[in-house]
Specification:
Number of domains: 1
Distance between the termini: 22 Å
Largest sheet: 6 strands, mixed
Oligomer: single chain
Helix content: 10-25%
Number of helices: 5
CATH topology: CNF1/YfiH-like putative cysteine hydrolases
Strand order of the largest sheet: 1-2-3-14-7-4
CATH class: Alpha Beta
Structural class: alpha+beta
CATH superfamily: CNF1/YfiH-like putative cysteine hydrolases
Strand content: 25-35%
Length: about 240
């Protein structure tokens, strides 16, 4: 993991062979809210800076809907591509961004996993799609988990925690501390259960709500409720 600076903006960067994974921060007000003019301008800047042919994203709806990128903006929460010089990404401000990389088969995916998507097993289902559509093998997939609201700050209702713990996949692990839910632990469980090796999982270990290292948007804890980070991945030529 390293920090990449573009002009006065800051990105958390991972690189795996010819795949580049970037999690934007909110430094100097960098905002990727696609519903704003500035958000669209910033997306265009990313496309130009990294010399990308396309940049794909979705109208996120907190679902388990997964798409293969075809230049259209669809309603869903996970996007996959095997094109080079094409980025796929998700917008977040507390929800969990998860990036999947299969170098062997040349396919990448970006997942928006809020509590609804996490409960619906969107990460597990995206791995299923990679296996079915591209011949991916889980133990060859690399996973990257970006900044999100972590268990230190993510307070939810007791009823929601009980909904999670009633699922078989989470019945034997501790995913909460009193009223605080650990979405990352749930996602790690999905990854490992699907066969992703623990050593192939990287996380920024960064809470959007309370970290002091980076400037980040947090829907719960920021004054700017419209601010969004963009987490994306692309394959170089």
């Amino acid at each position: 993991m390293e920090i990449e600076t573009i002009n006065d903006y800051e990105f958390i960067k991972f690189q795996q062979d010819n795949a580049v994974v970037l999690f934007s921060t909110a430094k100097n007000g960098l905002n990727f809210n696609k519903n704003t003019r500035q958000g669209l301008i910033n997306l265009a800047k990313i496309k130009a800076y990294y010399n990308l042919q396309s940049i794909g994203y979705l109208n996120q709806i907190h679902s388990d809907r997964i798409f293969t990128f075809d230049e259209n903006v669809k309603d869903g929460d996970a996007l996959i591509t095997d094109r080079t010089k094409t980025a796929v990404g998700v917008f977040t401000a507390d929800c969990v961004p998860v990036i999947l990389v299969d170098i062997k088969n040349g396919v990448i995916g970006a997942i928006h996993s809020g509590w609804k998507g996490t409960k619906a097993l969107i990460v597990s289902k995206t791995i299923d799609k990679l296996e079915e559509d591209y011949g991916s093998v889980a133990d060859e997939i690399r996973a990257f988990i970006g900044p999100h609201i972590r268990s230190c700050c993510y307070e939810v209702s007791r009823e929601l925690i009980e909904e999670f713990t009633s699922e078989d996949i989470y019945s034997n692990i501790k995913i909460s501390n009193n009223s605080k839910l650990d979405l990352e632990k749930c996602i790690l469980k999905q990854l490992v259960d699907k066969g992703v090796k623990k050593e192939n999982i990287s996380t920024t270990n960064t809470c959007t709500a309370c970290n002091k290292q980076y400037e980040l948007y947090s829907y719960r804890n920021s004054e700017d409720k419209q601010g969004r980070m963009f987490s994306f991945v692309y394959l170089k030529q």
